[in-house]
Amino acid sequence: MMSRETILNAVLALALLVVPVTASYAGEQFYVTLATRVAILALGAVGLNIALGLGGLVSFGHAAFFGIGGYAAGILAQHALSMEPIVFGLPGTKQMLVIWLVAMAASGLAALAIGAISLRTAGVYFIMITLAFAQMIYYFAISWPAYGGEDGLSIALRNSFPGVNTLRPLPFFLLCYGVLAAALAFFLMLKNARFGAALQASRQNEVRVASVGIGPYRIRLAAFIISGMVTGLAGALFADLNRFVSPSMLSWQMSGELIVLIILGGVGRLFGPVVGAVIFVVLEFWLGGITERWQFFLGLALLGVVLFARGGVIGLLAGRERHG
Amino acid sequence: MAEPVLVISDLVKSFGALLATDHVSIDLRPGEIHALIGPNGAGKSTLINQIAGTIRPDSGSIRFADEDITAHGVAERARRGLGRTFQVSSLAPEFSALRNVMLAVQAVQGSSFRFFRPVMRDDRLIEPAMSALYRVGLAGRASVRAAELSHGERRQLEIAIALALGSKAFLLDEPMAGMGPEGSKNLTAFLDGLRAEAPILLVEHDMDAVFALADRITVLDYGRVIATGSVEEIRRNPEVRRAYLGDQA
What we know:
The complex is a heterodimer. By secondary structure, chain A is mainly α.
């Protein structure tokens, strides 16, 4: 028998596909763009959900990886346009597959460096040190004139993917949706495997994990790197969606948004980031049209979830999580 | 006589002005239950924590299976076969009893860096874990979350985890605490058989259990060993009677 959560997830996955496809055929391309925004933000939060949800690592610096992924896309595209090599004669590229690999490698390396140091702390110190690292990268981007500095970097034409016309909204949405689906499948696989068991146990009781002979540090570091890579991939897609990268992708507000998405949807839940991203984008779009202070209502929603639905919206609808 | 499995030599640990472990030397021989008793605050748990690696001693050494493990961390000591239970149960509360034991089985089988196969479909994990649960009488509660187990059941689960680790020595910190008379009786019978598998260093306040089980008893008081000997020697020792046993002997 399927659990309530499985059914709920299936409905959500279907809705996120049907709405933009219908909108596209009805000529409402704007809604397709909104859905793409949902998919990409959800992807970024799926990445964070590996560290935060499974590992209990409250990273307040995931914008660093989101932004590094974005800049990877922007910088590679700029060099492809100018035909100037980046370093050591390496050329730029407009190919998303290459860009994604570079984005994931760069954000993974950053996560290795940041995680190796940050994971020696815990609790509030971990939150603060991840924030500090992200702020360092943010100010670096602002003061680096080669790639736009404070003004950011435009991508003249959206990068390309074999067999997909990425310039049109619907095919680009479907591409992002496919990547999100793959990331969700990856998250589920990770969660259920031995690695996920050790990671989730480290969140619940670090002493217990060490007492059976598993060192929590290496498990957490690996999770942090994987987490950063997925969020970096989302950053590359986000840059392509907006055809623009700026230091705001690296800002602490961005880190906070990713955390908010997960808390709204349900920490550690497979579709938590998806629900969170839907709520966020819908509030941003509808309420943002009515009042500039739409984030006040986002705050209210967050308050409601924290006070009355600790498992987020998924927890509210599907009940508490069961671990075999 | 067989070589001791665990040798603690001249261990010292102080917390500020308090000397919690005062030049303690004890050992654990194959096949024996060595009970560690003493009044509250005598330093029993501090000693167990130093052996398990959660607390670093100020000086002295700990040898286990012919190797100096004084500098090793908790995880490394566990991998070498030191299985412990905690005075206050320490489990993964959201995981079922079965998954708590499976984590130990997974650790024994090697790397946790495996990303593909779902653990709940992995008989190599489930079968050894179930058999450990069965041995401690917890098989019927395998799918219950650790947080929802009764106090006594959690103690049993900790022992099942130590069993699944295939430990070469057990450090049991008050395994009877909070158990009813029936539970204590069953656990006593179980530990009686367990010593053949691996020796046990047993911290326990239940003197009936200690006298029934122990091959040797060491008495701690103010961090110091005040006596070591057989059950009879300890019962007769005047200093032990004054410090701890009172009328119980």
